[in-house]
Design a protein that fits this description.
The complex is a heterodimer of chains A (303) and B (335). Chain A contains twelve helices and no strands. The two termini of chain A are 35 Å apart. Chain A is mainly alpha-helical and 303 residues long. The model of chain A has no long low-confidence stretch (mean pLDDT 86). Chain B has 335 residues and is an alpha/beta fold. Chain B folds into two domains: 221 residues, 3-Layer(aba) Sandwich (Rossmann fold); 67 residues, Alpha-Beta Plaits, CATH 3.30.70.100. In chain B, the strands form three sheets. In chain B, strands 6-7-8-3-9-10 form a six-stranded mixed β-sheet, with helices on both faces. In chain B, strand 4 and strand 5 form a beta hairpin. In chain B, helix 3 packs across helix 4 and helix 3 packs parallel to helix 5. The longest helix of chain B has 22 residues. Classes of the chains: A mainly alpha (303), B alpha/beta (335). At the A-B interface, helix 1 and helix 6 of A face helix 2, helix 3 and helix 12 of B.
Chain lengths: 303, 335
């Protein structure tokens, strides 16, 4: 066999070529790239800052004592009560959100939020490839079916990590209060958990769209799935204060574990606690969903 | 692999969609090494499904086929490595440049960059796209896209090349140019070519052998000449001055197969029109007749096609055009 005829015997050949193709569509397209940066800014600056939950417990929100009650108290007692109420805000905030600042709590939930949005696009890209014939061409080349799917998943995961990084930087600029747990390594921890959840979610969205040739289907599914994924999680509100029927759903939701891990690494101050559990849960979710997706691709990627 | 083995061998190949729609129904044929084999048929006859099965994208429901000795179901990876595919659609990635697209194709075949970079330049030269190699495919014209598809299909130096409607939607010049490339490929690389087209005159000029498929079944197979001959040969239409019956006289002439009198003129079927026509004139002159009109019609694949499918190719073409329009609309939507 001459030098000219050498071909790779690697079973995963073409993986990076296909991944890079998807990534190029993103980073070589300035508009898509910029929107990916602007969108989290809007979410954080508008929603994140608008939900100023801490203000609900400030002294201006609490009505003054009724005149008759105040008259019965000594000035010392009044001073004590004043001190109690002024400390109420940080007490309630810390016991509810585990951090005194709701913006910091929610900004870290937003890291998971952008991951859901970013990975949802992978479903669209599978459908586009099918409709424009690119998928058919790839299927007629000696590339493993699993490689075609994995390349989509990897590129979405890389995008998710980048977006998560952007959200973190913007949140910091907008006043994120880092917790006592934070070290430089926390950032790598965040990237790792986002990569894992990105892997799992993009496998999920890919699996859903494997057989689809219509554009409307993934959009409808995406709208249906993202809402419960986001709100039945700890993204905006702590799970232990949710109604009992909602708790099991939120506890089963891998997004909750991702968000918990990100918050523990970045904004909480009470140690890492269940961090290994978070990683294990999200990791197992990613592996299981990816395996299911690959198995489905063997059967369904063909016509 | 022995030399006399067929490049493509298809036995009882069948595809049934959803347990009810039989797209391809127990077809049998074989393609010899170095042959240009044309697959004709109306829309929905099973052409694309057949190609799709042969290039291992669609799994057959029944039957088997082998390419260069490799079974399309059991040895699909081997088959994929040894074939090239130029699909009906423009499959190149519009956001990448022509060069990047070819390199991407090479990567999909596992060809190392040390080889593929050189080969990509050669192929761009071959399809005359070198000047546009760093332009995004978005900016390419239909003809350029088609040539790029061709280059991508050749990157792995395939022994068998599949072309699905390679000239669909192209203007006359680009169509001619595309077929020139195809002829050159056969000559230079000794490739076996399997193509579908619905431009019958092109199939006639280009293909060594043709199969016509309708309702999932192959209705006839043979060289263009054989197929045309099967219709009964050339048709000579003739009128004479006097109203006399000359049927008897003409029937005796060499190559004449059939004589019919219709509306005062004679329809003569001949296996060799060019030879027969002068003989007829000569014979009639000797017997004192004056020929007033004579025309010679060679049967084209059009007649063959109509004979076997009972459909005009025009209908199929129009609905294909509407499919193309949909595709183009989608393409615009994406940009």
């Amino acid at each position: 066999m001459s030098e000219e005829d050498k071909v790779s015997k690697n079973r995963f050949h073409g993986l990076w070529a296909l991944t890079n193709r998807d990534l190029k569509k993103w980073y070589q397209n300035p508009i898509v790239f910029m929107i990916g940066i602007i969108q989290p800014i809007l979410w954080l600056a508008l929603l994140g800052k608008a939900m100023n939950i801490g203000a609900m417990f400030s002294s201006t929100s609490i009505p003054p004592l009724p005149q008759q009650l105040a008259a019965t108290l000594t000035s010392q007692q009044l001073q004590g009560l004043g001190a109690y109420f002024s400390g109420l805000q940080s007490t309630i905030m810390t016991s509810t959100f585990n951090t005194g600042d709701y913006f910091s709590f929610m900004a870290m939930g937003m890291v998971a939020f952008v991951t859901v949005f970013t990975t949802a696009f992978v479903g669209m890209s599978v459908v586009w490839d099918r409709r424009l014939g690119f998928m058919n061409k790839v299927l007629s080349t000696p590339v493993a079916r699993s490689v075609i799917i994995t390349s989509k998943v990897i590129s979405a995961s890389i995008r998710s990590v980048f977006q998560a990084g952007i959200v973190t930087v913007i949140a910091y600029l907008l006043g994120l209060k880092l917790g006592a747990n934070f070290t430089v390594f926390s950032i790598f921890g965040v990237f790792a958990i986002v990569f894992l959840i990105g892997f799992g979610l993009s496998s999920l969205f890919t699996a859903i769209t494997l057989r689809t040739t219509r554009m409307e289907t993934p959009q409808a599914i995406f709208n249906l799935v993202t809402l419960p994924l986001m709100f039945a999680s700890s993204a905006y509100f702590p799970i232990n204060l949710m109604p009992d029927w909602l708790k099991p759903i939120a506890y089963a939701n891998p997004i909750s574990y991702t968000i918990d891990a990100v918050r523990r690494l970045m904004v909480f101050s009470d140690g890492f606690g269940p961090l290994p559990l978070d990683f294990a849960y999200v990791g197992i979710f990613a592996v299981v969903v990816t395996l299911i997706c690959v198995v489905l691709s063997w059967r369904y990627l063909n016509k | 692999m022995s030399e006399n083995e067929e490049a493509i061998k298809v036995e009882g190949l069948t595809k049934v969609y959803n347990h009810s729609l039989t797209a391809v129904d127990h077809i049998n044929f074989s393609v010899k090494h170095g042959e240009i084999f044309g697959f004709l048929g109306p829309n929905g006859a099973g052409k694309t499904t057949t190609i799709s099965m042969l290039i291992t994208v669609t799994k057959p429901t029944e039957g088997k086929a082998s390419i260069l000795g490799g079974d399309i179901s059991k040895q699909s990876m081997t088959v994929r490595s040894s074939i090239g595919v130029v699909p009906q659609e423009y499959t190149a990635d519009e956001d990448l440049t022509g060069y990047e697209n070819i390199i991407l194709c090479a990567d999909l075949y596992g060809i190392p960059h040390s080889v593929s970079k050189k080969r990509a330049m050669e192929l761009l030269e071959l399809v005359e796209l070198t000047a546009f190699k760093d332009k995004r495919v978005q900016t390419y014209s239909g003809g350029m896209r088609r040539r790029l598809e061709l280059a991508c299909g050749l990157i792995n130096r395939p022994k068998v090349l599949f072309l699905d409607e390679p000239t669909l939607g192209l203007d006359v010049q680009t169509r001619a140019a595309t077929w020139n490339y195809v002829k050159m490929l056969k000559k230079e690389f000794g490739m076996t070519l399997f193509l579908t087209t619905h431009y019958l005159e092109e199939a006639d000029a280009l293909c060594d052998r043709i199969a016509i498929i309708d309702h999932g079944k192959i209705v006839v197979i043979g060289s263009p000449t054989e197929l045309k001959d099967s219709l009964g040969g050339d048709i000579i239409t003739l009128s004479i001055q006097k109203d006399e019956d000359i049927t008897e006289l003409i029937s005796k002439i060499e190559h004449v197969k059939e004589v019919k009198k219709e509306n005062g003129s004679y329809m003569i079927k001949s296996s060799n029109g060019e030879l027969t026509a002068p003989l007829i004139i000569e014979a009639l002159r000797k017997s004192g007749h004056v020929v007033t009109k004579l025309s010679l019609t060679k049967p084209t694949l059009n007649e063959v096609y109509l004979q076997y499918t009972g459909k005009s190719m025009r209908d199929a073409e129009e609905s294909r055009e509407s499919v193309m329009q949909q595709r183009m609309a989608m393409r615009r939507a994406r940009q």
